[in-house]
Amino acid sequence: MSVPADRRYSQSHEWFKVDGKSVTIGITQFAADELTDITYVDVPKVGVVIESGSPFGEVESVKATSDLFSAVTGKVVEVNQKLANQPELLNTDPFNDGWIAKLDCQDLSPLDNLLDGPAYDKMIAQ
Amino acid sequence: MLQTPLIGFHKDAGARLVDFAGWEMPVVYAGIIEEHNHTRNHATFFDVSHMGRVRFRGNDAEALLERLNTRAIAGMAVGQSRYSHMLREDGGILDDVIVTRLEDHFLVVCNASNRVKLLDWWDRHLAGTDVQITDETTETAMIAIQGPEAIETIESLLPFQVSDLKRYHCRAGFIAGAEYIISRTGYTGEDGLEIIMPAAFAPSAAHMLVEKSAEKGRPILPAGLGARDTLRTEAAMPLYGHELTEEWDPISAGQAWVVKFEKEFIGRDTCLRVRDAGPMRKLIGLEVDSKRTPRQGAVIRADGEDVGVVTSGVSSPTLGRVIAMGFVPPQLAEAGTSLEVVISRDVAPARVVAMPFYKRG
Question: Rounded to two decimals, what is the model's pTM?
């Protein structure tokens, strides 16, 4: 199965979907499957500035805890409130209802260095 | 990486495979929580072929094992198994093992991560003794069938009885020329069996188990290392590398019950000293008031001060809450004591509770 073609993908399995200056971040189905049953998502606070390349949150599963990384710098304008009570949305619908945060970004150019859908598919197939 | 005889089975079953102590092992098939709950409510089976299986033969085997183990080996009946620790001279835990007395020799089952270290350790005690040690880990397979339905379902598939086996007892014999050892043991907090068989038999045994149990309407599903960890943590069973390490003796690791002082064994002096002075730390169970799970290494605090460390933590599928094990000074180990656990950027309230967290009904 192919990942959605309307966004970019990091090597660390986050996706970034651009809408104007707004970038929505989530994790891929591959990442969610690797983590197994997700029990908690530590989302950033609205208003916080996230630095590109730095961890901005954590995903906890029955098995382990993993950091979330952003490929872009930006201010958090919205977080997915549903995740507080339904962290399993990351397992069941990571590309839509399981989105994590929306950032307001000045510079979108780092996204050019990320993988597009087919390249990401190829990476996880290896 | 080493592979168990069931590697093909795992791949066909869609398992996610990981490197565990140098073995390519299934961590999850359908889902950790699903496998966990199926074990608690029905039965699952685990490939535990990565664990070491080593035979001790010869006239001095019993005497050597008596010296190597914290628990009594002499006096064990044929077909009896005992959980025990093996210690360094200074009392540090080398491994936790299960020793079984068979007709004319002994079987030691050890952790995969410690097998090579132990083979070397045992080798150093062989001089002048009549003991032959044979590592049969790669030529045999071992599967654990665990859960309330395990005994009845397995018995219906075997040509002999198993429900008459007592806990920590085994039956050894041959089926179609293949040696088996079937023990009423496990690492989940449920009733169940662990079966050792020749490697070549394992794939057909696993398939038969899955198919025949499904035909009987009582499916035994495969479960991975993920569920094995959540199950053993709920049952408060220690795991080597977490609750047990070479840095501490069994008493300081909260396992005083495995130390049999009425005999000689390597590491006894340290155990005696710790017993008489009292251990510096105690193993505690914690209920954590958080949705977040503290992992190994998470700091435990009392009144804002660092007092201990978490060794295992899980979001318990059976209890629906976060639980953890860890070590604190004895004065803070009393059930009901209020503590805190540092989980990443958060500090969560926690309460000392009696262990095990889960006990089968």
Answer: 0.92
